[in-house]
Amino acid sequence: MKILYAASDQHIPGTTGGSVHVMAVAEGLARLGHEMHVMVTPGGPFPTGDVRWIALPPPARRKELRWVNTGAVRTLAQQIRPAVIIERYYNFGGEGIRAAADIGALAVLEVNAPVVDYPGSPKRMLDRALLFEPMRRWREHLCASSDLIVTPNPAILPADTPSSKIVQLEWGADTDRFRPDSGGAVPFDRPADTVAVFSGAFRNWHGAIHIVTALRELRARGRHDIGAVLIGDGPELTRVREAARALDGVIFTGALPHDRMPACLAACDFGVAPFDPETHPALSLGFYWSPLKIFEYMASGLPVVAPAIDRIPKLIGHNSEGLLYDTAIPTSLPHAFEALTDAVLRNRLGRAARDRVVRDYSWAAHCRALDAAITDALHARAYGVSSRRTDAH
After folding, report:
1. Cα(302)–Cα(322) distance, rounded to whole angstroms?
2. C-alpha distances in angstroms, 226 versus 49, 188, 209, 334, 375?
3. Is the pLDDT of residue 221 over 60?
């Protein structure tokens, strides 16, 4: 079937989680036989393949102005006549959901960030100052107008969202590309006998600073056999670099194209996802993230070190696919690093992590479940019956 995918604030190709997500879903649905038309911001030459990429960046490339493209999206929808329109949710979006209503297409909303406001949100205070709370009303209207809402955590949706329209899915990893044996040139030499890796956008809640703190603690105890490779860029990078000054065994690569990541991860020994929810007020709603880094570490056969908070123990079994640490105990993270100098333990956890992600968290599994949900909803609409949704994970 024809599917139009509205994600114009995401760069393709790109290095962010959003870019990876959009590309993976578009290509995954195309492999299942769908004719995919995807509206994005060009981040360079579009990838070749079956997906029909459409350059439609927001005005001035400001994602806050995505809604200005509403008319252009409607015109495209009228020309393409898709059976389904998927929109990647954003506060100032809605152009895909509107176009679906205009042409009678099935409206699918991907929700990766909270629709509801967290306590103390500046956006919420501004909305209330406007008396009629237009932003809240608009977000709730988008959810009410959608036929399906795809999200890793229903807690970030309006409380009155019918469970029948919620498709609860984790995001994923490309398990064909991310493998323990992925080869290729990497932009670093191994800095120690055992190498931890972090990949991310260096935002404060990603917690990269905790890796440096753990290594400094290990150095103070005479452990120089554990190093780290930190991949990515973002607002916290300068602070993390400064914290690592004069610390041996730490390498910063900067941002890398996503197609270089499989070889980089395979060249390391374990992955670290030291999330710090207390530094990000929106996470007071719960850890709604479905972290790509965790799934890509697992696909690469790496044990994962992460905090034992909220949903994370459901994604990573402690001493099964990785090691979870207690954020209230300062020595817990460096002790996890020390434990993973044991190659036998690393291999056992890494094999289990790979098996788990192939089974539960691949993009292929995500797209199969999404395809089934869409087919079910279209069938229900055609025959005038209620669709029945179940959680995929």
Report:
1. 8
2. 41, 15, 16, 10, 49
3. yes
Q: Do the Cβ atoms of 345 and 313 come closer than 8 Å?
A: no
Bridge partners (DSSP) listed for residue 167: 150
Burial of 301 (0-12, 13-18, 19+ CB in 10 A): buried
Residues forming CATH 3.40.50.2000 domain(s) in the chain: 2-172+362-383, 194-360
| Residue with token string 């799934």 | 295
Superfamily of domain 2-172+362-383: Glycogen Phosphorylase B; (3.40.50.2000)
DSSP code, position 318 = B
Could you tell me how far CA 346 lies from the centroid of its own chain?
Answer: 25
How many of the other CB atoms lie within 10 Å of CB of 319? 13
CB 97 within 8 A of CB 81: no
* CA dist., res. 241 & res. 53, Å (int): 37
How many C-beta neighbours within 10 Å does residue 171 have? 22
What is the rounded CA–CA span in Å between residue 168 and residue 216? Answer: 40
User: What pLDDT score was predicted for residue 390?
Assistant: 45
* Cβ contacts of 275 within 8 Å, gap of 6 or more: 205, 206, 207, 287, 289, 291, 306, 307, 309, 312
Distance CA 385, CA 392 (A): 21
Q: What is the pLDDT of residues 50-82, one digit of tens each?
A: 999 999 999 988 888 888 999 999 999 999 999
For the cut 80, the answer to whether the pLDDT of residue 259 exceeds it is yes
pLDDT band at 388 (very low <50, low <70, confident <90, very high): very low
- d(C-alpha 16, C-alpha 258), whole Å: 8
| 161 vs 117, residue with greater confidence | 161
% the chain with pLDDT above 90: 81
* Residue 93: both structure tokens together: 């979006």
For the purposes of burial, counting CB atoms within 10 Å of the CB of 89, is it exposed (0-12), middle (13-18) or buried (19 or more)?
buried
**Residue 8, class by beta-carbon neighbours within 10 Å (0-12 exposed, 13-18 middle, 19+ buried)?**
buried
The dihedral through the CA atoms of 173, 176, 181, 186 has a sign that is negative
- 340-360 residue pLDDT tens: 999 999 999 999 999 999 999
Kindly tell me if the per-residue pLDDT of 281 is higher than 50.
yes
Please give the CATH architecture assigned to the domain spanning 194-360: 3-Layer(aba) Sandwich (3.40)
